[in-house]
Amino acid sequence: MTDLDLGDLDAFAAVARTRSFRQAARLRGVSASSLSEALRRLEGRLGVRLLNRTTRSVTPTEAGERLLDRLGPALVEVAAALDAVNHFRDSPTGTLRLNVPHIVARSVLPPVVGRFLRAHPGIVLEVTTEDSLIDVLAAGFDAGIRYDESLERDMIAVPVGPREQCYVTAAAPSCLALHGIPSHPRDLLHVPCVRHRFISGVTLPWEFERGPESVKINPTGPLIATTIDLELSAAVEGLGFIHTFADFLAPALESGALVQVLHAWSPRFSGPFLYYPSRRHMPAPLRAFVDFLKAEAASRG
Predict the structure, then answer these.
(1) By C-alpha distance, which of 173, 298, 293 is closest to 241?
(2) CA atoms within 13 A on the CB side of 111
(3) 6-85: which CATH number, 1.10.10.10, 2.60.120.510, 3.30.450.20, 1.10.30.50?
(4) Are the beta carbons of 46 and 1 closer than 8 angstroms?
């Protein structure tokens, strides 16, 4: 078995972890057909089926599970050994894969990305936006960005972007003229609201804080969507009140298309963090990004 191709083994590990040829191909920047061919070669060499494939799912067989358990750490060590050479470059090269929420992709990363990539022209940054919580390593990412309440305690967390953000509530002038201006969050239970549903299917309650007092409500309304652009458009059209990140609503608030209400009830919370697992060998592109974030934080004092 010494003539096994390392690339085929890596392809198997990528598909087995993501349980999807399409997702593994997207993360690796190759075609799904090339991964499928690699799997056929590997299974032919080993003489055993490693993955059960149907039109709806990809799952490791018992043999595939055992191979993945033993192969995973070995591939990490190989990658680390090759990446160690990267640290001797003036500027590291390679791909940095991040998984981030939409709010981070839209409001936090844009000013950071330009400065980072200009400082490290040899690095390719791949950003996937996803609001649901996932195992970033199992999905093939180097690191993720999430908020403090979503971080696993065994992860290393580095601040990125603004250190404080807030939620605001707003509505179009036409909506306020029709339904009035709420004086308490519970007033929103009696007016139409535009709500957000995560891809996972979860629709979170709206949370409000004023001093020590906190309120959670589950308002109703004519629209529930999974995209902020549609929700924002509906709010501007006067279809209901909206409650979301201030960064999302800033342009509409500045133009007067929306008007903020319940100013005293806007909950403030810690900004996002880059998070990654503690491991002996950190990939050079990730190390460069962590060092960049820390240097930026130090320069801001």
Answers:
(1) 173
(2) 7
(3) 1.10.10.10
(4) yes
Look up tokens 């040829």; give the residue: 21
Dist. CA 26–CA 234, nearest whole Å: 33
pTM of the model: 0.68
User: If you count them, how many residues does the chain have?
Assistant: 301
Decide whether 6-85 matches 165-268 in CATH topology: no
What is the model's pLDDT at position 86?
58
Which phi and psi angles does 162 have, rounded to 5°? -60, 145
Give pLDDT, residue 301. 63
Per-residue pLDDT, 91: 66
Strands 193-196 and 241-245: parallel
Question: What is the pLDDT at residue 251?
Answer: 95
Q: What is the DSSP string of 157-203?
A: EEE-S-SEEEEEEEE-HHHHHHH---SSGGGGGGS-EEEE--TTS--
CATH homologous superfamily for the domain 91-162+271-300: Periplasmic binding protein-like II (3.40.190.10)
Structure tokens at 275: 């998070």
- Residues of the chain with pLDDT below 70 are 1-4, 76-77, 79-91, 149-153, 279-281, 301
Find the DSSP H helices in 105-161: 109-119
The residue extents of the domains of the chain are 6-85, 91-162+271-300, 165-268
CATH T-level fold of 165-268: D-Maltodextrin-Binding Protein; domain 2 (3.40.190)
Instruction: Specify which residues 242 forms β-bridges with.
Output: 170, 194
Do 45 and 33 touch, CB atoms closer than 8 A? no
Q: What is the pLDDT of residue 85?
A: 64
The CA-based dihedral angle spanning residues 105, 108, 111, 115, taken in that order and rounded to the nearest 10 degrees? -90
Q: Are 53 and 40 in contact (CB under 8 A)?
A: no
Using left for φ > 0, alpha for ψ between -120 and 50, and beta otherwise, residue 166 falls in: beta
